[in-house]
Design brief:
Layout (H helix, E strand, L loop, with lengths): L3 E9 L3 E6 L2 E6 L2 H5 L8 E11 L2 E7 L2 H11 L6 H10 L2 H9 L3 H5 L6 H31 L2 H14 L4 H14 L5 H15 L4
Antiparallel strand pairs: 1-2, 1-4, 2-3, 4-5
Helix pairs in contact: 2-3, 4-6, 7-8, 7-9, 8-9
């Protein structure tokens, strides 16, 4: 499967674009969402995320500005009765984030505003995709929390708080912590505190 293409944008309309990749021109169907990000890109080199749709003898390449839009497209075409054209229509009328919000909140009226999406189709989209959308949102939040928990900023903040409780000068502690993290950015809070205390025992730098 072609997952992305990097090349020169030689032609662009609101419904498709053509990218020249080493002398080969790829005709790629796009949404208005993607088109809006390519307004001043013609003649320039771009990277477009793609989805190759195969049905019987038909091979159609769809392109997306980001992986988020491609993921929503993939979810939509998995719904019974929603083909690539309907999915592109949805992505041309709403942003990927608006689609996620409408599905997670079961907002049928918003989906109904899109041409070709009736009440039954909107209900089917919500029923089949709500759990996937919510699961994806929760997973992303958990990942972000995990990244934050391991960030040097929060590690330093926790270590500084612990050293302050132990009675050390916050200003001097901060300088010592910055020095340690510059050399060892992957230090855990526990190791950061231990290293700081070891330095203090050697030269009383924290007091």
């Amino acid at each position: 499967m072609i997952t992305h293409l990097r090349g020169k944008l030689v032609e662009k309309t609101k419904s498709y674009l053509v990218i020249d990749c080493h002398g080969v021109g790829y005709h790629i169907h796009i949404s208005s969402y993607t088109y809006s990000y390519l307004l001043e890109k013609e003649g320039k080199y771009i990277c477009i995320h793609t989805y190759l749709f195969i049905k019987e003898n038909k091979h159609v390449l769809y392109g997306f500005f980001d992986k988020k839009e491609r993921k929503i497209f993939s979810h939509l075409i998995s719904v019974n009765g929603i083909g690539p054209s309907s999915a592109i229509m949805l992505l041309s009328s709403m942003t990927p984030y608006e689609i996620e919000k409408s599905i997670s909140k079961e907002d049928i009226k918003v989906l109904n505003k899109v041409k070709g999406i009736g009440t039954k189709t909107a209900q089917r989209i919500i029923i089949e995709l709500k759990d996937k959308i919510i699961k994806g949102i929760i997973s992303k939040k958990e990942k972000n929390v995990k990244l934050l928990e391991n960030s040097p900023y929060l590690i330093k903040k926790e270590a500084l708080s612990a050293l302050s409780i132990l009675g050390f000068s916050p200003q001097k502690s901060k300088k010592v912590l910055d020095d340690i993290l510059d050399k060892n950015p992957e230090f855990s809070v526990e190791n950061l505190i231990k290293d700081s205390l070891m330095r203090d025992r050697k030269n009383t730098s924290l007091n």
